[in-house]
Design a protein that fits this description.
Largest interface: A-B, 50 and 41 residues
Radius of gyration of chain B: 37 Å
Oligomer: heterodimer
Number of strands of chain A: 3
Distance between the termini of chain A: 15 Å
Number of strands of chain B: 25
Family (chain B): Belongs to the transpeptidase family. MrdA subfamily.
Pfam families (chain B): PBP_dimer (PF03717), Transpeptidase (PF00905)
Helix content of chain A: over 70%
Largest sheet of chain B: 7 strands, mixed
Enzyme class (chain B): hydrolase
Radius of gyration of chain A: 21 Å
Binding site for Zn(2+) (chain B): 354, 369, 375, 388
Order of helices and strands of chain A: HHHHHEEEHHHHHHHHHH
InterPro entries (chain B): Beta-lactam/transpept (IPR050515), Beta-lactam/transpept-like (IPR012338), PBP_dimer (IPR005311), PBP_dimer_sf (IPR036138), PCN-bd_Tpept (IPR001460), Penicillin-binding_protein_2 (IPR017790)
Structural class of chain B: alpha+beta
Number of domains of chain A: 2
Shape of chain B: elongated
CATH topology of the largest domain in chain B: Beta-lactamase
């Protein structure tokens, strides 16, 4: 019923394979982004311009991806996943190092970041893997799926890129969860994860990552050293108060006490200038995008599409959670940007491609239905 | 999609996904609420705390140094000024390669060679400010040069501030002293006095002379500026300003004209001159030669320059007027004569036969008069006018060391005069106790005879000579010598009060006149030792010459001079005390000149020059100063 109404309301949007409400949500976030970047970047219009260009590219990617029939992804799920995995291995040996991590693969023309490809390749692969058999997914299948998730996760984590590995891991695990893995397994997994934390601590985390966790647990222990970022961020957020200091009025950001103002810590700038009211509004906006994404996934026609859309949407949620949790001091510092708000291009393009997939899922299905009836 | 489709319950699968999606969304909602709860805690519950911390991040209260009070002479001529200077400041924390940066700066601005060395010394010393001064006194060209290249020098800044400047340079060094960088000792002392907060922004402090003595008046009170800073401490804007209270101006009794005359008189000679106002104790002139340029010390003297001053055999760093310890020689004969009259050991008319020497009973040694053939019958007047030693051997023998030291202490010998600078020596008025303590020996009578002609252990500062002579000139007034004339702005000076000890009382006040007549005779008598110096003086002067066998300024040289050897250092010191007019004394002078020979020939003419200046009218004074200036120009060319 609703579907018909919507199609009638915006037939041209449906033809363009665009979901209106979701697009509005994304545009709204982008607008917020430009205002905050202008403030956080020291009122540098050049910075804003560059971000506008990136957004243009990202929305372009979204539009193009939305035109692709979702089943096409299913066809390429396995080869792309394998190729991505091989590239990650290649990165390990021939990768280009930057900012203390070996993340890039130089292919002559340009540098590519295989971990970024895996952000989509893993959910596509897992969606295909889970949807091969009737749902709910069986125990052994879950184990196989976990292997599919763990392999890229570990390869990315050792680069090291903890942020991306968390995102890749969650996209896969969400796929398994949405595919109906038994609750018993879910709880067992949580317990197992808790039990393996010491293993993580001693064998997988690097010294600087351990330091981050320690800092997170007690930032005041080293207020001018490793704790500086998180303390200044909390001061920024807290001193924003209920109503905020006003746009361009945040002293923590304008006077540069905040680190990484226009990238990872942009939420602190936003909170300082727009206060708790702004924070509620922003989370509502994120909530709306997530809700819409899940809604479109629920309405999807096949399990593959459902699981894929749901996994992408929930990964988007993980972005929000990890970033806000990090800057407000409830999660350790992991380099994850605030999605669609932080300055920067790569992850935005990937994210928009993801939303393109969701829009494709939402719109191609309708066309299929209308054609078949 | 429709490949190998087993029998599937699509509805059930869809419902399963729906349930999982709803569970997921619920988790999302719960997590978002959790995040919001935490943010609420930060932004609403703990708002005050974080607001405070945010403010303390960005709001800094900066102290603002007060402007130092100026120093004027009695006629309002400026002796210590504040002039704007541009200094090159290095913030070591913001400079990547200090050695390279300094090297480039020195080359770019053609700074003196020892600049870098001095800088590294400062860099490694404990610092009161985050910046370290590289060079203190950039000229306009250097400022322009640096500004145009500033982008190549992160962490280097030019700072403009007011700095002390002494326009008269070496003319007043020992009197004014100077200000210098606040060092660790100063910090400790200021902390003890609980004054350190007042110096939070001040870079220099009075180190010597007036600048040191009246530091509290000159300094003023610190002000505060509340500013907003960024994370690098750069000031973004001023939020509040609480201006400092400038230090008060100081007006000295000093007359710059006298100083010039004094300097001119002592040119090329080591010595000191004091001119006192006989009626107030005001110090009209205080000059010690050689001097040095106090401006060297203001920005921090280089170690080479300082070593040069320190090792200079003429000891320019010493204020000879208050720290030089000279044997008074015959200049104290009026004082001893007064004591003789006071105690009735002599009368105005009693006489002594001077064959040219004096001998103690039962002692082989003959104490010689300076006049080999003797002075014949000598009374007190002749003894002073002609400076007869034999008379004084006899007198001091009769007085004894105890009477002498206690009376001379009353006249201020062996004690600080209390003049308002810290650099003052007590010199030495010997007595039996001192001899015992110093040498563990009894006092010998022969030593009393030497003391009787102002030799032996007795040493005085020129200032003590002046104040004691002033007591005679004023017939007993014991005024404390004072440099401070008043405090405050030119048109609202608070004049300082005369400080006076109870007068010296003599058994018969007629004795004063006896001594004063004798001092007058020094100048008027045909054989008066200062007659030549005061021929045709248009005023009545009185005085006493002195010629002292040299005892080195410091105790380190024990060599005795070989009498005929005219090594300059072993020549006699010339001393002189005097006042004028003889009837109603207005000024008192004391002079000590090292290694120049007799006092009559060498020191008395200096007194004449000073008194001439005093009694000249304005035109005459101008003419005198002009003549001196011309002569100095000639000498420099």
């Amino acid at each position: 019923m609703q579907t018909t109404e919507e199609r009638q309301r915006h037939p041209w949007l449906a033809k363009l394979h665009i979901d209106g409400p979701l697009l509005l949500g994304l545009i709204a976030l982008s607008c917020v982004s430009l205002f905050v970047i202008y403030s956080a970047g020291g009122q540098d219009l050049g910075l804003v311009q560059r971000q506008v260009i990136r957004m243009g590219i990202s929305f372009g990617v979204l539009f193009i991806v939305a035109q692709i029939a979702p089943d096409t992804f299913r066809t390429y799920a396995f080869p792309v996943y394998i190729a991505g995995l091989l590239m990650l291995v290649a990165v390990m040996f021939f990768g280009v190092t930057g900012k203390g991590a070996q993340r890039w693969l130089d292919i002559g023309v340009t540098r590519i970041q295989p971990s970024e490809i895996m952000k989509l390749a893993v959910p596509i692969m897992l969606a295909w893997y889970c949807a091969r058999n009737p749902l709910p997914i069986r125990f052994l299948q879950v184990l196989g799926g976990l292997l599919l998730v763990i392999a890229p996760t570990l390869l990315i984590a050792q680069q090291p890129d903890l942020g991306t590995s968390v995102l890749v891991a969650s996209s896969g695990i969400f796929a398994l969860f949405l595919a109906g893995m038994s609750w018993r397994l879910v709880f067992a997994g949580i317990v197992a994860l808790g039990a393996s934390l010491p293993v993580f601590w001693f064998f997988l985390l690097r010294e600087y990552q351990r330091q981050r966790v320690l800092t997170f647990l007690n930032p005041e222990s080293d207020p001018l050293g490793s704790g500086y970022h998180i303390i200044q961020s909390k001061i920024a957020i807290g001193s924003g108060g209920f109503e905020g200091k006003g746009w361009l009025q945040g002293t923590q950001s304008q006077l540069e006490f905040l680190p990484e103002r226009h990238t990872d810590f942009i939420f602190s700038v936003f909170s300082e200038e727009f206060g708790f009211i702004g924070v509620v509004a922003l989370l509502a906006l994120y909530g709306f995008v997530i809700f819409r994404g899940m809604l479109l996934s629920i309405r999807a026609q096949s399990n593959f599409q459902r699981i894929l859309g749901g996994s992408i949407t929930l990964t988007f949620f993980i972005y929000v959670l990890v970033n806000i949790g990090m800057v407000s001091g409830v999660l350790p510092v992991v380099g994850v940007p605030l999605p669609l708000i932080s300055y920067g291009g790569t992850s935005m393009v990937t994210m928009m491609a993801g939303f393109g997939i969701i829009m494709g899922i939402a719109t191609h299905r309708r066309l299929a239905i209308s054609q078949s009836t | 999609m429709k490949k190998r489709v087993p029998i599937r319950n699509h509805q059930a699968e869809s419902a399963l996904f729906g349930r999982r999606a709803i569970v997921s969304l619920s988790i999302v909602a719960i997590v978002f609420l959790g995040l919001l709860a935490n943010l609420y805690q930060l932004q609403v519950t703990s708002f005050q705390e974080f607001q405070t911390r945010s403010n303390s991040n960005r709001i800094v209260v900066l102290p603002v140094a007060p402007n130092r009070g100026l120093i004027y002479d009695r006629n309002g001529s400026l002796l210590a000024d504040n002039t704007p200077v541009y200094s090159l400041e290095v913030s070591p924390a913001e400079v990547n390669n200090i050695a390279d940066t300094i090297e480039r700066l020195v080359a770019l601005l053609s700074l003196p060679e020892d600049t870098a060395d001095t800088f590294y010394v400062r860099l490694n010393q404990p610092r009161r400010f985050p910046q370290v001064t590289l060079f203190d006194n950039l000229n306009e060209q250097q400022v322009a040069l640096f500004v145009s290249a500033q982008h190549q020098f992160p962490g280097i800044n030019i700072e403009g501030r007011l700095q002390r400047f002494y326009p008269h340079r070496d003319l007043l060094t020992h009197t004014l002293g100077y200000v210098g960088r606040i060092n660790q000792q100063d910090v400790t002392r200021l902390r003890e006095q609980e004054l350190y907060a007042q110096y939070a922004a001040t870079r220099t402090i009075g180190k010597l002379g007036i600048e040191r003595y009246y530091e509290n008046i000159l300094h003023g009170e610190v002000g505060y500026q509340t500013v907003e800073v960024n994370n690098r401490g750069r000031v973004v804007r001023t939020l509040d300003f609480n201006p400092p209270t400038p230090g008060k101006d100081i007006h000295l009794e000093i007359d710059i004209g006298y100083q010039k005359v004094a300097r001119h008189q002592l040119r090329g000679r080591r010595g000191a001159i004091i001119v006192l106002d006989a009626n107030t104790g005001g110090v009209l002139a205080m000059y010690s030669n050689p001097g040095y340029d106090p401006n060297l010390f203001v920005g921090g003297i280089s170690s080479n320059e300082y070593r040069e001053l320190l090792n200079n055999s003429a000891n320019p760093l010493i204020n000879r007027a208050t720290q030089g310890r000279y044997p008074p020689a015959s200049t104290i004969k009026p004082h001893l004569g007064l004591l003789g009259l006071h105690l009735g050991v002599i009368t105005a008319d009693s006489t002594v036969w001077d064959p040219g020497w004096y001998q103690l009973e039962g002692v082989e040694r003959r104490f010689r008069d300076w006049r080999q053939q003797g002075h014949g019958w000598v009374d007190i007047t002749k003894a002073i006018a002609e400076s007869c030693n034999t008379y004084y051997y006899d007198l001091s023998f009769k007085l004894g060391i105890d009477n002498i030291s206690s009376f001379m202490s009353e006249m201020g010998f062996g004690e600080r005069t209390g003049i308002d600078i810290t650099e003052e020596s007590t010199a030495l008025m010997p007595d039996r106790g001192w001899k015992r303590a110093r040498y563990n020996e009894p006092w010998y009578q022969g030593e009393t005879l030497s003391v009787g002609i102002g030799q032996s252990f007795w040493t005085v500062t020129p200032l003590q000579l002046a104040t004691s002579t002033s007591i005679i000139a004023t017939e007993g007034r014991r005024l404390q010598p004072r440099l401070l004339h008043g405090i405050g702005e030119q048109n609202a000076i608070e004049y300082s009060e005369i400080i006076e000890k109870p007068p010296l009382v003599i058994s018969d006040s007629a004795h004063w006149q006896t001594i004063k007549n004798a001092m007058r005779a020094t100048i008027t008598d045909v054989r008066g030792t200062a007659r030549m110096a005061f021929i045709n003086a248009p005023y009545t002067a009185a005085g006493k010459t002195g010629t002292a066998q040299v005892v080195a300024l410091s105790d380190e040289t024990d060599e005795r001079p070989e009498t005929e050897d005219v090594i300059e250092r072993f020549r006699d010191n010339a001393t002189y005390v005097g006042y004028a007019p003889a009837e109603y004394p207005e000024i008192v002078v004391a002079i000590a000149i090292e290694n120049v020979g007799g006092g009559g020939r060498n020191a008395a003419p200096v007194s004449r020059a000073l008194m001439d200046y005093y009694f000249a009218d304005d035109a005459g004074r101008t003419a005198i100063l002009q003549a001196i200036a011309d002569e100095e120009v000639d000498a420099n060319n």
